[in-house]
Write a structure and sequence with these properties.
Protein name: Glutamate receptor ionotropic, kainate 2-like isoform X1
Structural class: alpha/beta
Largest sheet: 8 strands, mixed
Family: Belongs to the glutamate-gated ion channel (TC 1.A.10.1) family.
Membrane topology: Multi-pass membrane protein
Oligomer: single chain
Radius of gyration: 58 Å
Keywords: Cell membrane, Glycoprotein, Ion channel, Ion transport, Ligand-gated ion channel, Membrane, Postsynaptic cell membrane, Receptor, Signal, Synapse, Transmembrane, Transmembrane helix, Transport
Subcellular location: Cell membrane; Postsynaptic cell membrane
Number of helices: 30
Low-confidence stretches: 15-24, 285-291, 413-422, 810-819, 896-958
Strand order of the largest sheet: 7-6-8-9-10-13-14-15
Length: about 950
């Protein structure tokens, strides 16, 4: 049985081998030629590997035979012509190579005449497409077209990196061709791009790096050099700190990953270094987990450009030839000869070239090593993918596609522990940002006890707190650098100073202070999103408020008016007395019970008349009223006079009492323009002066022209100088400044005020060098601070918290409050009241003492006894009746208690008596009233007759 199974196995193997031999014998043999320079062993190895893999394909209908020729290192077109003709004599169906070491196109011309496909796998700097269409019809290049590569670099720099200022460094003509489009970035000015050739600095390369660092202050460098030159060049640049943080390098050679930079990476490579390469189909070679990697696997896995492209060129030609030959066309070996006259091009050659231009990467086997293989009508590879990666750690970042899009790639690489130190990304280490600013309250100030601190701890202010919060959010360290001012632009030299100069020269990474975002500044630096909004307003002097008058209630009338009012009252008093004495209506019977009195009484004496005058003008009235027509007419006129005077006084009182609320002499920019006494100006060279100088508004242009015409100059060197000029000018100078700084100064100085509304709208932002990659992170952090209300808290801390209290502290300095009066302004009214009370008390005391003296004389007692008795009685306020004599007062004082008790018992008995007598009293009262009325009538008739008799007597005697 065992022998039987062994016999079956031998028969099966024999049949399998015989079948393979039959298949091989039925394949069509196609010869291909290749030209190699000395030292291109890797490219030759890739060529052999591609042929081997294709020939090992069981169902591949063609069998390829290779014929190689080697070119000496010297570039000789005659040698290339001879070797090409030798290949043609061997009936090759295609010629691969040579590489770009050959500067002549003799191989392409010979292949074009013979109709033999010519496969190129290296750069071709010939960009004359018309010449290529005529004389290179049989040439196909699998290397990325230089025009497309240059466009890809332009997309990366402009769209992804957003660089607008950089320096270009190249080594070869091919390198120059790859970066040529970078000089045509539309938004970049020519002076922002410098280009240097490494060949010009062969004697001492340090001259180049010194020029870039000290003269250009360059932070972005684009370099194209050979891979073997890269590491030595970067090590030299390292001596000039060109590999420090915040530096950016873009290496454009597609073989940068084979330069050894991955192994040379160390802590000195802190700059952001990126490069590109043709994106391969296979995974990153450093991710592979194969147990055994051959030399060819390592070569192709490393994605070295020439070997990889040679492999793809062989696969492209083999699949195109198979499609043509097996597609119904009989294979006839080419019979081209260089020296043969009248020979015709190979018929199948143009079909194979056409098939290579149409074939898809999905239809080939084995697959290509690079993504997207598209050949255009000129035989150039116009479509391919480029991989953007970090050569120091070999980490892919993004992929550029032929449509110009750039897609980010996020991959987690598993790197062995043995190489973990070598692949550390030192560019991601914690950075130290240099923050440039200048002394300006309240943004950046020295602490009062700054001598007790060291370093950045001696500073305080809004900008200090803002940078501190940003550093906590973004996890970076910082140090402050002081300069003079935000930065002024010199239109003659086109140069900046201050913060702007430091950022342009890349001596700092962040600029912070009261730095306004303007279009001119944005041409030279980038800004984050604003952290503060503001405008422009007028700073003006506010004088001390007038001293409030305690007798302000007298101000509605002038002194003369008050004197005339008092004099008028005295005159009217005397006039009333005189008119009352001559008017018989004002003489009355002093005792109505006497029908015919001996004499009449006139109540309009001086004191009563003065009381009427005072009551009338005080609108209180009086119980004394005139009876005769003349007196009534005179009283009515006085009442009219009192009404007018009181109404006028009331109307003027409010205006007079609020007239000490000071209003500024100017209230708007228009008021400044229309007057000539007050000068006004701005910070020289600042954003405010730029606003007025470039504005098309008529009033702003007028203001700018007036500011320029003032002598001496109305412009200042700093905001602090402008504030001092306003203080010292005391109303003769106004300063146009940003509202944030203005409000800060008005909060801390009672002699400063804001005039007019806000002019325009401006924003403060953090400034960074052009194209800084951390600008987006800063903007996002500022937005977070705004959303969490931190920016508002910072502003409140540095603007509102102060210890200055003004006498007239109002929310709006220009507001005039006419409704509120202070105690000082009404204090005189209280003083008059108190004075009147004191005078009345004094008069009462004097009257009391005078009465005590009279009682002592009349009753023949000592003044002491009289004073004691009168005072004791006055203090017993519950007694309502006063005896005429002091002895009665003493007796009554002893019997007061007993009388009070008896009065209570008597009150009950008296009530019963009163009820009985009430009816009788009513009747008696009625009779008495009738009798009184009759008597009064008789007395009035008698008095009239008596007065008539007296008048007759007076007239007769007269």
């Amino acid at each position: 049985m065992y022998r039987y199974w062994c016999l079956l196995l031998i028969v099966f193997n024999t049949l399998h081998i015989s079948c393979e031999l039959v298949v091989v014998e039925t394949r069509t043999t196609v010869k291909v030629g290749a030209l190699f320079f000395s030292g291109e062993d890797e490219t030759e190895l890739a060529f052999d590997e591609a042929i081997r893999q294709i020939n090992n394909q069981k169902l591949f209908e063609l069998q390829f035979e290779t014929i190689k020729r080697y070119v000496p290192n010297e570039d000789d077109s005659l040698v290339l012509q001879q070797l090409t003709c030798e290949l043609l004599a061997q009936d090759v169906a295609a010629i691969f190579g040579p590489s770009s070491r050959a500067t002549t196109d003799i191989v392409a011309l010979i292949a074009n005449n013979a109709g033999i496909p010519h496969l190129q796998y290296d750069w071709d700097i010939d960009i004359d497409l018309e010449q290529r269409r005529l004389n290179h019809q049989m040439s196909v290049s699998v290397a990325p077209a230089l025009q497309t590569v240059a466009r890809a670099y332009l997309d990366i720099i402009r769209k992804d990196y957003k660089w607008r200022k950089f320096t270009l460094i190249y080594e070869t003509e091919q390198g120059l061709a790859r970066i040529q489009d970078l000089m045509n970035v539309a938004e970049v000015k020519r002076e922002n791009i410098k280009i240097r050739n490494l060949a010009e600095y062969e004697e001492d390369m340090r001259v180049l790096w010194k020029e870039i660092e000290e003269d250009f202050h360059e932070q972005r460098l684009i370099m194209d050099c050979k891979p073997e030159s890269l590491v030595p060049l970067l090590n030299q640049a390292k001596e000039f700190k060109l590999l420090g943080p915040f530096r950016n390098w873009f290496l454009t050679h597609l073989d940068t990953h084979s330069s050894g930079l991955f192994q040379a990476n160390n802590a000195d490579f802190q700059s952001n270094i990126t490069s590109v390469r043709v994106k391969g189909v296979d995974a990153n070679p450093f991710e592979r987990k194969k147990t055994r990697i051959t030399e060819v696997d390592q070569l192709l896995g490393n994605q070295t450009m020439l070997p990889t492209l040679m492999y793809d060129a062989v696969v492209l030609f083999a699949n195109a030839a198979r499609n043509v030959i097996t597609g119904g066309r009989e294979f006839v070996e080419p019979a081209g000869r260089c020296e043969a006259e009248g020979s015709y091009p190979w018929v199948l050659g143009k079909y194979i070239v056409g098939e290579m231009k149409r074939i898809s990467e999905d239809d080939v086997e084995p697959p290509f090593k690079t993504e997207i293989m598209k050949i255009d009508e000129y035989g150039l590879r116009s479509e391919f993918n480029l991989e953007i990666y970090k050569p120091t750690i070999n980490e892919p970042l993004a992929t550029w596609s032929p449509d110009g899009s750039i897609q980010s790639v996020r991959r987690d690489f598993q790197i062995s522990s043995s190489s973990s130190a070598a692949v550390q990304d030192f560019a991601q280490s914690r950075r130290v940002y240099r923050v440039v600013t200048h002394i300006e309250e309240p943004y950046f100030m020295m602490k009062e006890d700054a001598e007790n601190f060291r370093g950045d701890e001696k500073y305080e202010g809004y900008a200090v707190d803002l940078i501190q919060k940003l550093s906590e959010m973004m996890e970076f360290e910082y140090e402050f650098v002081l300069v003079n001012g935000n930065g002024k632009f010199n239109p003659v030299t086109k140069e900046w100073d201050g913060i702007m100069r430091s950022l342009i020269d890349h001596r700092a990474q962040i600029g912070v202070c009261d730095l306004t975002i303007t279009q001119l500044r944005r041409k030279y630096v980038d800004f984050t999103v604003p952290f503060m909004q503001l405008g422009i307003s007028i700073l003006f002097y506010k004088p001390d408020p007038e001293v409030k008058d305690i007798f302000a209630f007298l101000q509605p009338f002038a002194k003369e008016v008050w004197m005339y009012v008092i004099l008028t009252q005295l005159v009217m008093t005397l006039a009333f007395v005189f008119m009352a004495r001559i008017s018989h209506h004002e003489w009355e019977n002093p005792n109505p019970l006497v029908e015919d009195p001996e004499e009449l009484e006139n109540k309009w004496r001086t004191r009563n008349t003065a009381w009427l005058m005072i009551g009338s003008i005080m609108q209180q009235g009086c119980d004394l009223l005139p009876r005769g027509a003349p007196m009534r007419m005179l009283t009515a006129m006085w009442w009219f006079f009192a009404l007018m005077m009181l109404s006028t006084y009331t109307a003027n009182l409010a205006a007079v009492l609020t007239s000490n609320k000071i209003k500024p002499s100017i209230e708007s920019l228009e008021d400044l323009i229309d007057q000539h006494e007050i000068k006004f100006g701005t910070l020289e060279g600042g954003s405010t002066s730029l606003f007025f100088s470039e504005s098309n508004e008529t009033n702003y242009q007028k203001a700018w022209n007036q500011m320029k015409s003032f002598e001496p100059s109305a412009f200042t060197k700093s905001n602090k100088e402008g504030v001092e000029r306003v203080r010292k000018g005391e109303g003769k100078y106004a300063f146009l400044m940003e509202t944030t700084s203005l409000s800060y100064n008005t909060e801390r100085d009672c002699h400063l005020q804001q005039i007019g509304d806000q002019i325009g709208e401006k924003h403060y932002g953090l400034a960074v060098p052009l194209g800084a990659d951390y600008r987006t992170n800063l903007s996002v952090s500022i937005l977070k601070l705004s959303e969490t209300n931190e920016l508002y808290k910072l502003k409140k801390k540095w603007w509102k918290n102060h210890n200055v209290t003004c006498e007239d502290d109002e929310t709006d300095p220009q507001a005039v409050d006419g409704d509120e009066l202070s105690l000082i302004e009404l204090g005189g009214v209280f003083l008059v009241l108190v004075g009147g009370i004191v005078v009345a008390i004094i008069i009462g005391i004097l009257e009391f003492l005078w009465n005590v003296q009279k009682v002592a004389v009349r009753e023949k007692v000592t003044p002491g006894e009289a004073f004691k008795a009168e005072l004791i009685f006055a203090l017993k306020f519950w007694i309502t009746k006063k005896p005429n004599r002091i002895s009665s007062i003493r007796t009554n004082s002893d019997d007061t208690t007993s009388r009070a008790s008896r009065s209570t018992s008597r009150r009950s008995s008296s009530q019963s008596k009163q009820s009985k007598q009430s009816k009788q009293s009513k009747h008696s009262k009625h009779s008495k009233v009738s009798k009184r009325s009759k008597r009064s009538k008789r007395s009035r008739s008698r008095s009239r007759s008596h007065s008539k008799s007296r008048s007759k007597k007076y007239s007769t005697s007269g």
